[in-house]
Structure formats: structure tokens, C-alpha cells
Write a structure and sequence with these properties.
Blueprint (H helix, E strand, L loop, with lengths): L5 H8 L3 E5 H14 L5 E6 L6 H8 L4 E4 L2 H9 L7 E3 L6 H10 L3 E4 L2 H14 L3 E6 L25 H13 L3 E7 L10 H19 L6 E3 L16 H12 L5 E4 L3 H4 L3 E12 L6 E2 L12 E2 L16 E5 L8 H5 L5 E3 L8 E7 L8 E9 L6 E4 L20 E6 L2 E6 L4 H5 L4
Parallel strand pairs: 1-18, 2-3, 2-9, 3-4, 4-5, 5-6, 6-7, 7-8, 8-9, 13-15
Antiparallel strand pairs: 1-10, 10-13, 10-17, 11-12, 14-17, 15-16, 18-19
Helix pairs in contact: 2-9, 5-6, 7-8, 8-9
The structure holds ligand LLP.
The site of ligand LLP has 22 residues, from helix 10 and helix 11.
């Protein structure tokens, strides 16, 4: 990673370990800024993808804004240098105290997601004798064709309100002294690979914004959310240049300023999760291992339960085969939750050699605990360091202490330097909050 050996990082900081490349994040920011340079815009980084203070400071220092969904993320965003005037607050379930903090701090806008929330927000602003800048989140009922758990803009999803209801909320808000509509927003989902859903949503938002302007409610911002897909398994990324060109032609001469809320696209590719191979095993045949690096049988004599190199893994016949590593679903939940297929490679790439099909599984006591399924892998040996790639987004941020496992450490690499940005949790940390 940049000028640093990840094998050495694993030895120095232990595993499982999250490692991020500063250069990769900066180059992704530059790429998005360049792609959208023809349009007046603001990127609000979705903190949920990776809320590490160090990464957030890096991103805020480049002039981006933040998209937050909780009081905790508000605190993180402000502490890491995002000015309140560039923070937007989304989410269907903001509490009264979260709304209070948001109004006091004068965020760029608060994204209203229901009629009852609008009323509560008005009450809060009135009591504080302040005016809250708001947006209404529209649910455009568009299928972004992604995993069902990360689809948000369908009518069956809990997010936003239908366009007609949104217009009504805007009209009501415009009449209230303590509310000021400034933006219209939608967010379709995550890991979106096509431009089409964005364009359909954009058309709806533009037409709604035009009818609001005709009602005497001019808006300043048009926010089409995040969700720009990155490569995963067989699927490629959503190209920011293509997206920007399509949005620009749809926007035409419209004076609304564009907001995008990329999370994953800015940080996913910068991160890897390092892990160590603990054991190998096969659950069929004689269950014994005979691989090219297992000296007892001599190199190249792969056979037994693992079969000949490259053989397909078939339940019941010759398989399954498992590589057991020290990172589990508590460290990285995406494969278990969304069937995500992240590339996995040895930290030290072997020169040639046979490959074997196996599942890479963690130590958690659940069958759903795996980091990679049915992959063609170089022959592993205990102690090998492996890297799960594209792990910079929704990796550490979704990790937990399940099975009473202290959370992993995080390291930021920049050139030849590697800095520990979050220490590994200890056994003591597991008990720190218990009374
Ligand atoms: N804006 C809003 C309002 C959101 O809800 C989200 C993500 C984003 C922006 C950023 O989306 P992104 O650009 O990162 O796709 N844990 C799941 C992803 C959940 C995303 C939730 N909302 C995963 O690991 O795939």
C-alpha cells in the first residue's frame, strides 16, 4: 500500500487490521471534483461509510461537506472540521434532542422525512426562537437495481415522502415563521451502477422544484443523494464522469446548486482488511490436507480432500473446503449481510502455483460468518497474511464486539508512513461500560 509493506503492518499492529491509503482517498476526491467541475456543486461526504476522525479531517480539509444521520455523526463531523454551513442532516428517525442540536448549530439544512417530523422540527425551532433551513426528502419510487437491503427510493421503503406529499409539506413549511425550505432531496440506495435511476429521480425533483418556484417557493439546492457504486464481484463501478455529464445535460440552465452525498465511492477503494490464516480444513473425504506448501507430502502433491488444483467446490463431493482466518463477520459484515463479494488476495503474492477453491471463514459461531465464498485462491498456509480489498467503506463502521471480540485497529498509510489512527480494543474495553 503506497510505499509500505502490508505484511509488515500486520506484524507491527496485529490482525485483524484495517489499513487505508491517504493517496487513494485524495485521488478519488480529485476525480469526483474534476468530473463535476462544470456544475455548481457541493459533495457532502456520508460519514456512515467511514466516520474515522482522521479520515474525516482529511476529507473536510478538501472543502467537502458532510451528510450525517445522527447526533453522534453531527459531533464527529463538527469535531473533524466540517463547518456547520456544509452539513446536512438526513434520516427518518431524528429525535427531538438531535433536532434541537441541529437547529442550534445552524446546519446547511435538515432533511425532513415525514409530516410529523416537520411539526416536531417547527416546535423545536419555535422554542429556540430560530429559523430552521429545511429540505424535504422525496421518495420517487425508483428501482436502482441494487441489493434489496440497500434500496431506499422505492415506495415500499421507509424513506422520504411521495412527490405530491412533498409539495404539500413544502407549501406548509413556507408559511411557517420558523421554517425555511431551501432544498429538495432524494437518495435512491447504495451500490448503484447505472445513470438511469439518477436521471429519472432528477427529472422528478426538477419538475417539483419548478412547481414550487411557481408557488412562490424558490429553492437553492437540489440534492440527489449518494449511492455511486464501486466495483464488487463481477460488477464494475459507476463512472463519475458519465454521471456528471448526464446530470449536466438534464439540469440545463437551471440555477439550482447540486448536492451529492457520496460515502462509499470516496473511501471504499482506499481500504483493506488484513487478516491472518489460522487453519485450513475440509469437511468431506478423508478431511486431510495435502497441498503444495505442506512439506510432509512434498510440494506439488495436492490431493486428498482438497482435490486437484482448481477443482470446483461441490457440496457433498470433495468439499467444502475452508480457510479459517482471524477476521469474522463482527469485523466485516458486508459478505454476510449483502452477499458482497470483495476481492481477497495474499499480502505476499505467490509466483504462480496452483489455485484451490475454498470458503474463507471467520471464528464467529455462525454459519453466516464468512469473508469470501467459493473463491479460487492460492494455497494458503497458517500465518499467511491476506487482504480483503475495497474494505474502506462500511467495514470498520459496521463492526461490532459480537462474540466478545475486541474491535480491530485502524492504520492510515501515507507514502512511506503508517500511523495508528485507532488503537485495537482490549479485553478491558469489553468491560469498560458494565456496571
Ligand atoms: N445519503 C444517504 C441519505 C444515505 O442513506 C446513504 C447511505 C448515503 C448518502 C451514502 O451512500 P453511499 O454513497 O455510501 O452508497 N451498509 C451498506 C450501505 C448502507 C448505505 C446507507 N445509506 C453497505 O455496506 O453496502
Amino acid at each position: 500500500m503506497e510505499g509500505v509493506s502490508v505484511r509488515n503492518l500486520a506484524d507491527r499492529f496485529g490482525t485483524p487490521l484495517y489499513v487505508y491509503s491517504e493517496a487513494a482517498i485524495l485521488s478519488q476526491i480529485r476525480r469526483f471534483e474534476a468530473a463535476f467541475s462544470g456544475l455548481p456543486h457541493l459533495f457532502c461526504y456520508a460519514l456512515k461509510a467511514n466516520p474515522s476522525g482522521r479520515l474525516c479531517r482529511l476529507i473536510s480539509s478538501r472543502g467537502l461537506g458532510a451528510d450525517i444521520v445522527s447526533g453522534g455523526e453531527m459531533e464527529r463531523a463538527l469535531r473533524s472540521g466540517f463547518p456547520a454551513s456544509r452539513i446536512i442532516f438526513s434520516g427518518v428517525g431524528k429525535t427531538e434532542s438531535e433536532l434541537k442540536w441541529a437547529v442550534r448549530r445552524r446546519l446547511l439544512f435538515i432533511n425532513v422525512e415525514s409530516e410529523e417530523e416537520l411539526r416536531r422540527l417547527e416546535g423545536v425551532a419555535k422554542r429556540l426562537n430560530k429559523t430552521a433551513d429545511i429540505s424535504v426528502r422525496v421518495n420517487p419510487d425508483i428501482d436502482p437495481r441494487t441489493h434489496r437491503h440497500i434500496t431506499t427510493g422505492l415506495a415500499v421503503n421507509k424513506f422520504g415522502v411521495p412527490p405530491a406529499a412533498a409539495r404539500d409539506l413544502f407549501r406548509r413549511a413556507a408559511k411557517r415563521k420558523h421554517l425555511r425550505p431551501v432544498a429538495i432531496q432524494c437518495h435512491l440506495g447504495s451500490q448503484i451502477r447505472e445513470v438511469k435511476p439518477y436521471l429519472s429521480a432528477l427529472r422528478q425533483l426538477l419538475s417539483l422544484a419548478r412547481s414550487l418556484a411557481a408557488d412562490g417557493i424558490p429553492l437553492r439546492w437540489l440534492d440527489i443523494g449518494g449511492g455511486m457504486g464501486v466495483a464488487e464481484g463481477e460488477k464494475g463501478e459507476l463512472n463519475p464522469e458519465t454521471l456528471a455529464a448526464a446530470i449536466a445535460s438534464e439540469m440545463g440552465a437551471n440555477p439550482l446548486r447540486l448536492i451529492l452525498e457520496p460515502g462509499r465511492a470516496l473511501v471504499a477503494g482506499s481500504g483493506a482488511l488484513l487478516m491472518k490464516v489460522l487453519y485450513r480444513k475440509a469437511s468431506a473425504g478423508d478431511g486431510l490436507l495435502r497441498g503444495p506448501r505442506d512439506s510432509a507430502l512434498g510440494p506439488g502433491s495436492a490431493s486428498g480432500a482438497w482435490g486437484a488444483p482448481g477443482t470446483r467446490l461441490r457440496r457433498g463431493r470433495g468439499g467444502p473446503r475452508f480457510v479459517i482466518v482471524d477476521a469474522g463477520m463482527n469485523d466485516f459484515a458486508r459478505p454476510s449481510l449483502y452477499d458482497a463479494q470483495h476481492p481477497i488476495v495474499p499480502a505476499v503474492l505467490p509466483r504462480g502455483g496452483p489455485k484451490f477453491r475454498a470458503d474463507v471463514v471467520g471464528p464467529i459461531c455462525e454459519t453466516g460468518d464468512f469473508v469470501a465464498k467459493d473463491r479460487l485462491l492460492p494455497w494458503p498456509a497458517p500465518g499467511d497474511v491476506w487482504a480483503l480489498l475495497m474494505a474502506g467503506a462500511y467495514g470498520f463502521s459496521m463492526s461490532s464486539q459480537y462474540n466478545s471480540r475486541p474491535r480491530a485497529a485502524e492504520v492510515l498509510v501515507s507514502g512511506q508512513e503508517a500511523v495508528l489512527i485507532r488503537r485495537r480494543e482490549t479485553l478491558k474495553d469489553l468491560f469498560a461500560l458494565e456496571r
